[in-house]
Fold these 4 entries.
Entry 1:
Amino acid sequence: MATVFIPTQWRDLTGAIDQVPVEGQSLAQVIAAIEARFPGIRARVLDGEQIAAGLAVSIDGRVNARGLLASVQPTSEIHFLPAIGGG
């Protein structure tokens, strides 16, 4: 199963869990699986049917440019990288 690392700001939805094993062959499937377990995650990841502005997704150390169609392997590590605000 792929491992999804939950950003600190989202752990209120996961009961402080920081890593979640998830099945899925695409990023869309992974997000759907996380949402089924932790409702509210999808709203933080997506804006409609696209990755939310100000959020990058890294799969196996590479920032994903394919959006929800990105392939996920059983051993993949997925990181959601929210933009950092401030000056």
Entry 2:
Amino acid sequence: MVLLAGLGFDAGSFEGFAEKLVTHYRVYAISRRGFGASSVPPPAEDNYSARRLADDVLAVMGALKIVKPILVGHSIAGEELSSIGIRYPDKVAGLVYLDAGYPYAYYDPAVSKPDIMIDSSLVRAEINALYSPLPTPARKATLKTLVERDLPRFEQDLAEMQKQVSSLPDDTPTPPDTAQNRAAAAVIRGVEAQGGVKCPVLAIFAVPHNFARIDDAAERARQIEQDRANVGRQVDDFQRGNPQARVVRIANADHFIFKSNEADVLREIDVFAAGLK
């Protein structure tokens, strides 16, 4: 079993949880490039794209001679799971998404809720394609998709971002310019639109997430209902794109669902693993 951490974290984020797994599995945890003790390549998108990060996981598996493991990913590690599950499904026994099946892991531009990370990636790729030697039919198709689908969705994303940013005070602190923050930004820029995978899947979602930290009851109720609607839509999208997946919804769990609901997650993983061939 190979564990992949969320954005901004390293293999150490699974401390405590991994120890519960070693009674049944041989467990490894990987710190992606840019984090922990791993190397820190320059923060260009090509160095931190979903495909590049997934290839790193495959390289570690090859170096350690790990054959057909269960990959378990938290949060943005869902993009690495999906990249491997789409391109190299025969290299894994199955994939476990721990609150990780969000747009960076599955996105259908035709029906999914607009997402600025993915939509900006699509728009950049299409604009770059227009400045390459494309055959005329491909150029026409790319322009049609860009103008009729992806640019309008991206405009929706920007309008929503403008609304959020306009409410921030001008003296809001700027994130520190650290190597880790630059790597994290490159990971976000490197997300890709990914479809359904071709292997067994367990996806555990927090729906809705835990908002107990909000003291105001009315605001807490509003956030819960908004989260239930937004995450619920993504869960439905993920299930539709991965019909073979076992999708588990846990109410009022934290994003670090393997910590807030450890017993539930361990039980679901054991059941999933027992059913793999």
Entry 3:
Amino acid sequence: MNYEPVIGLEIHAELNTLNKMFCGCKNDPLEHHPNVNICPVCMAHPGTLPVINRDAIEKVIRVGLALGGDISPHSQFDRKNYFYPDLPKGYQISQYKYPIVAGGNLRGVRITRVHLEEDTGRLQHVENTMGLELSLGRPATLVDYNRAGVPLMELVTEPDLRSAADARVFAEELHDVLRYVNASDADMEKGQMRIEANISIRPVGSIEFGTKVEVKNINSFRAAERAILYEIERQKDVLESGGTVSQETRGWDDAGQKTVSQRSKESAHDYRYFPEPDLPPLNLTKEGGFDIEAIRSSLPELPQAKRTRFEKQYVLPSKIVSFLVSDKHLADYFEQASSELLEWVSNSNLETLPGRQAGGRPSMLIQLLANYMSSDLQALLVAKSASIIEMRITPENLAELIKMIYKNELSSRAAKNVLARMFADGSDPSTVVEEGNLRQVSDSNALEDVVQKIIQENSKPVEDYKKGKDVALQVLVGKVMKETKGAANPEVVRGVLTRILRGV
């Protein structure tokens, strides 16, 4: 029997506020000294009262508006009751009936709701503590509450996804949106964005949903795709063997590349939701201090709109556009460097440039810039685990380097060396070129003496070329390049060699 997967996602993202959700503690869940960013409020000491973080509310509103959702004029927090060692209160302050955002759409997938809650602490399972063996030699579990109380946004989709690949694309797009609207850094490796997938299968053509299984502990887009693929096949095997799929929560075992059963799936009534008595309802209107239209007008150009514009305005391949737009700072940097290049084109007489056709110069320059940013420059950033905003190369200096490459003033090898020096210390490309005597020689008259010298000293490849062995010409080009220490333009060298050897 053929089955169709039905997939919905629940995605959590830690908001990048300065403070925690209901207290003044620093929002720094990556602090590696345990239990330093805590206070009586987030540790739920008796007599303490939570206070709502307004910035967190506004960040969720920004996400909701970016997704085309409706901002509820009335919202409230609820208590979600369950016990777990990383919950200092013994319950979680979350939202249930009245989320901040209802509806919305991203890449054709309907958004059910976006709500706000507090994150839990973090458990660390250890064999021993501070070098001392624990009683009976049994493993122990330590609790770090630095993350407890961090504002956590949860987005829930409708079950509109039909493949693991589509689920991955959706999550990646949401990741970009979160960063564009400055709601979350959304770094999955750091746990700032977590994906849970609700997966069921049904016979193709059926309108009834199958039994839903929730898969947790997914910490990368690649893992999300693999977890969903595995779970689809697992459920197929269960049904085809005559079994019944159980409604449960399963975890993704990345090492074993499989899902593993954790517990039976809870229902909403198991959590005994009721309105949080220590927090007032939210009035998300102008009268309540939230100007929704002003927030909407402050939103930046979003990833999908930027991709469409880049493809049309800069005439770039979709793959390179996707790379540039994946990071708002990277896209902004590209546009600043592009602006420098386009201004140069408009003020320059480019007809004198060798080897360039009359049409399409702006697009050729922009293509060259995009290629360097997506290859050589990206390789330098990855090697240093750095982001574009940490880089020392200014957009103006990168544009200057691209001009030099375009004008054949640098060989490709020299350009790589110049870029590496610029990346290391922020040097101006002209300074690096002059200090290293790296400017490429493209004047054929200036190269003739060197070419004649190489011809006189290498009679064997000269004779081979005259006998029709074209590969011998490349040997001579290489010797000229070595003689000039890479400064000669290889295409010009090839032309001079051909002219002299043919007696033209």
Entry 4:
Amino acid sequence: MKKFTYPLLALAVAGAIISGILLIQHYYPDAKIGFISCGQGIFNPCLSLAQSGYATLFTIPVAAYGLLWYLLALFILLIADYAGGRYHAFALALLLPLCVIAVAADAVLGLILIVLGILCPYCVATYGVNIFALALVILWFRSSKEENGFSFFETFRELLSGEPSPDRKAFYSAFVLFFFLLFFAIFATSQILKIKTEGVKIPEDKTASFLANFYRSPVEKIDFPGTGIVLGNPKAEVTIVAFTDFLCSACYEFYRIETLIFSKYRDRVKTVYYNYPLDSACNSDLKRTVYKNSCIAARAFMAASEGGIVEEYILKHFADYQNTHSRYDQGMAIAAFNQINTGARRGLDEKRFLAMMNSDSTARKIQEHIGLAKQLHINATPTLFIAGRRLVGVPPVEILDQLIKNELAGTKALE
């Protein structure tokens, strides 16, 4: 029976690893784990799925149930391999219905992904593991039936009824204890991760008060000129205008919130960026530099805009922000460009990108952005405009999410 149990053990280990990655991705979507990527662009399928409401069951991530299943299967197979004898038959009797249930659950989850239009590579990988596991268990069943006259119902009845021997009683006790300890460990860990990553939620009354004040503020009639630094679908229904410093810590937090918004609303939202570097090297309005070399970052983003690689560049720029922003220089700007796959660079090379960064045209455009910010009396980053209303600083994700919902509802009502 080892020709079936060993491949099943390998599949159970693979499934447990993938489910563990999915569980971590659920709570830490920015985590770089494994060689399978959840999403290469600003739209992250893991984030999209997590925000859809279908990633949890009874407030527990579906990935946690998958991890429980694979570890339980691993335990059953290891016991069968160690004990031998009738335990192989008992393992088969347990695994056959469990594999059928797993594949049936996967069919439902796969249908949900299709309806949502989301491709989750990790999820698909677990579906493949379960299908292969079920196929192996069916082959094991057929082989056992031909060689030993295996009967599923009789074996299952034997497993659950009759007066077991002392060693069988000990095994049953250990199995039940293991299952409940495993159940408790996985779901307790999930709850701990949830508490650690949820943060402090804004009370509904404060959200409502903030939104009421926002919509009471006047709509500023501003004719924003084209900038080229656009993230998201250029034809999106809702536009967020952001005056930013690409080395600003608050702007980085806004970017992190953007990834949630883009993943949730996908092609329905876009951000149009304008440079307002808090660096006196290019911003004469400042008495002192707040973020050294942010003028270089502004030039890099203007070059990325000119080269048509804004999305690719912003992902690389912010990928290691915590370790690079305090010592940022032109070399790091070029390093971010070089990290972009050659095929995604649209024919740009390092020499051309550097030339665009340091061109007179780029410097002139940055000054136009700074001039516009001065005209609008902007002195903090990020400063956002949504439907003509100003929002200074980084709004909590709950508030920005509700603003987007309101604006989408408004644009739909006008159609």
